Fold each of these.
Amino acid sequence: MPLTRTPTKTTSRPAAHAPAGDTLLRADHVQLGYWTPRGFNLAVGDASFEVAPREKVIVIGPSGCGKSTLLKAIAGFITPTGGTISVSGRTSLEPGPDRAVVFQEFDQLFPWRTVLDNVAYPLRVNGRSRRDALARAQEYVELAGLAHAADRYPHQLSGGMKQRVAIARALALEPAILLMDEPFGSLDAITRQRLQAELNRIVDQTHVTLLFVTHSIEEALVLGDRVVVLGNSPSNVIEIVDVRDLGGPETVEYGQMRGHLRDLLAVDKPIADDEEEEVLDGDGS
Amino acid sequence: MATAASSIPVARPRAVGWKRLPVWVRRAIIFAALIAIWQAYVSFRDVNPLLFASPWDTATTFWDGLRDGTLTKPTKTTLLLLMEGIGIGILVAAVLTAFATLTDVGEDLLTLLTSILNPLPGVAVLPLAMLWFGINDKAILFVIANATIWPIAINISTGFKTANPTLVSVGRNIGLSRVRQITDVLAPAALPYAISGLKTAWAFAWRTIIAAELVFGVAGSEGGLGNYINNARLYFLTPQVFAGLVAIAILGVVFETVFGVLERRTIVRWGMKTS
């Protein structure tokens, strides 16, 4: 993957670029829609991108563009209406711990289990012995900076702590790819920044591959190696940009990139001209 | 919760007088006062002892009943019958709920049956039960089971339906089988509803069994508490009538306490219900 500072505009088939061995996740012309009482509604028109092992890829787009739907499809909760998603070479995807998900909702922890038990339980489910699971859970609870709260129940935790537990729980499963669906979306700005830094540290320590959905440009720039930009629904991939070598928020490059992403995401702006089929007849509201 | 007190002193309005006493002391005082009034009424108003027993007579009769078994035996009979009836009720409710959770027909069936049978007072089916089973324990069991099935079934079913969808998604994501999804996610998630259903069922069953025993009179294998009271009335053993009522009230309090402890150890502790 070339490390460029300037935005790299990808052609219509980014999947063709990298050799197959270098790809952990490949979305190939994925189309996603759902049935409403009034007919078929297309959420994602055509999305192609790929994620290499150990890469941190951010999917960003305006609200309602179908980015969460895309993540749910990768997690196996819904089946694409067109195209293919392959993870580690497999294309028929049922939900499974190899694609552990961290959700946006704070209530994703089991209220009847302690912090430690919330992390250990999925390990038990996946065949580890009790002792093994607890030891491992302890390790990941510590990694998430929650050793002092291991015996607490979720309702005794703040929102930020709950999300850390959810991250620890997902990572303890050692997923092939960690899927995160706006996990910091409901947090206040300060907690959000702190958790972004924490996540960066944890991801660097565990070398996990990350696919992270957000609508925040800053979050994308802080966390990502590459950013997949989706347009308005029914969305296509407008552009895939490399952001791994940007400096901090004070640098010129960062500012330029932020401006560029803002332009791309501006709702009232016409979509980039290499987009074909930007209007799909009749199925919008 | 258990965090250290904040450094800023919070001025709390000082309770004065009655409110300053702990709850249990306040209750104990009121309780003692009521007993005193009761005793005074019997002592100074020259009431007919065949119609009204003093607290002292009630207490001694109660105590004697515990010692010679005249009160403990019917209590045991009633409780055993109650447990058996509730047990049957829970089993049937579980089957119905499972059916309702797994199939659409089952769901409609449960909704329909519940809306018809739940409002029916438990004892109302007693004449029918007597026709079907005769005057025996089976009839009472039938009545209790009927009184418990519906509140339990409708509550658990609601608990399953309102289970947090995010948790269900998490369950699928970590690879839970369908069975474990029910036992490990849906069941605990529905626990607040299950407990509340059980509480209602117990209250229904308790009222129903006492009423049924009162109607049955002496018949049946061994008389229960309702029977004990009815017998005492027949022979004008008024202190025994009172002692029977006291036993029923005490058991009611005991069961409420048990449910309270159960809730505090589970759903209150887990923040699924505020105490």
Amino acid sequence: MSDDQQRPESFERLDPRQKWVIRIHTALIGLVPAAALGIADLVLATEIPWQYGAVSLAVVLLYLIAVTVFPGRRYRRWGYQMGEEAIRIVSGWIFRKDTVVPFARVQHIDVSRGPIERMFGVATLTLHTAGSYNSTVALPGLAIDDANRMREEIRRQIGHDLP
Amino acid sequence: MTEEPETPRRLHPATLAIRFLERLPQFVLGLPAIAYFSTDLDFGMLLLIALAGLVISMLSAWIWWRRFSYETADGQLVIESGVFSRNRRTIPFDRIQDVSLEQSLLAPPPLFAMGPPRLLVFGLFNFSLVFLAILGGTSQYAGSFMPFDFAQPEYWIGNEAATLLALVSIGAALFFAGALLMVGMAAGVVRTFLKDYGFRLTRTESGLRRERGLFTRTDVVIPLKRLQAAIVSTGLVRRHFGWQGLALQSLGSDGKAGTHHDAAPFARRAELEPIFAEMAMKLPPPRERFVSVSRRSPWHRAVLPALALIATAIISGSLQPELLIVVALGALTVAPIIWLEWRARGYLLDGDTLFVRRGVTKPQTTILPLPKIQSITVRQSLLQRAFGLASLLIGTAGAPRMAPLAIPDLERGAALALRDTLLEPAP
């Protein structure tokens, strides 16, 4: 599949600052497996005749790639489209998701901001539906004003009666 | 509890006696399992463990009973429960959907009911293997008292007498298998009678009411307004006898998703028709009318098993060529399964209803009215992308969280087009 088949021009991009949010998030999350593998390398080097540092080097390289290259790709895969009656959200670099939620099916809406998101002035818009699959559909990386504006827009269109 | 200003009430103390009787069989049946995992213990010790377990279990039941209270005041039901974390649930009376403990003399005839003859047939189809596992544990336990150890290869490759004994053992094994079959069937019948005795589905003002159970009678009302989808299923064997089951997916009543309600577990298609009429839903059309998922789907699903088999073939082939036969047998079993699964999959859009069918051993069809769709996701894995396929996942209320309604492996264009059709607002 070519890129523009999933991300045509009509899709809105996330706020560019979100790239940094993903990057810092990845860097923090990645510390745990990186540290674990580093310790494993130490243990392995004493147990079996193995050059100490080989695993660690690979881990450091992978960590650097995950922090520098991957966030940009993941960021570029995100997109959304506010339609007349529904919102469409595409995401995913390896596993691609393309979700449509009709406004009439939204139960309630959250706008949330974590500490990293606050640092960069972005927010996550989360739509709650009554379905058990996709019970929450999150759209991260919106400028805080955009997120609030979209929340008001969707709220106006929420159906009053439960299906 | 007692320090509350109002007067909360406890459950009747007889609840504890009932609990005891309920738990007793579990411990008796659990004995072989304990024996299986701990061969060193003698029988007395085992009994002691079971007794201790029972005492602890009853103690916890008593604490639970002490901490459970309810009261009805100010037009609401308040239930307090919990040992460590207290939970106080308030249910306003007008939120209680249906209690209906009274019985009217002019009760309408049931929409569907099952008498003992039907239950017997149903029970035979409900062949249960659970008891076989328990029996397996018991025989293992008994085995430690036997003079010979059947599991030891030295016992088998000894002399002519041993071969003779082995022949006798084959006969015994066949007899044993037959006996197990009978036990399995009997277990199925017993379980079915316990669960579905006096099964009645009636139409009430607000919805469908189901009563069933021999010792534990349950009485459930499924309001038609909260009905989300229906599932018609059958089995590998019962399919050929024309038996079907109907379950209803309704809006999670207790925040518990994925609890489907049996509405007619064992019925003829003609018996389902009046129920579907009450629900204003359509019965699934014949299989021929369904649209198959992409022809590339079985190829896509064969990739990973094929890679695994090839890897096994390379490794085993270099070590011991005879093992290649096992690999070939593996391929011969996996391939038909993949093909059968593909053949069982299909969907059909008929007016405002989507039918989705799947399953080889338990073929089932979901009947989903389009307005009940909450969201739709088109998902593509890396491998699916290589084949140009995509899966359609439909969010519906009250469905199992782990197994949403899905139409896997459509061609990508078809998946996107189907999604747009499904989400088109009703005219």
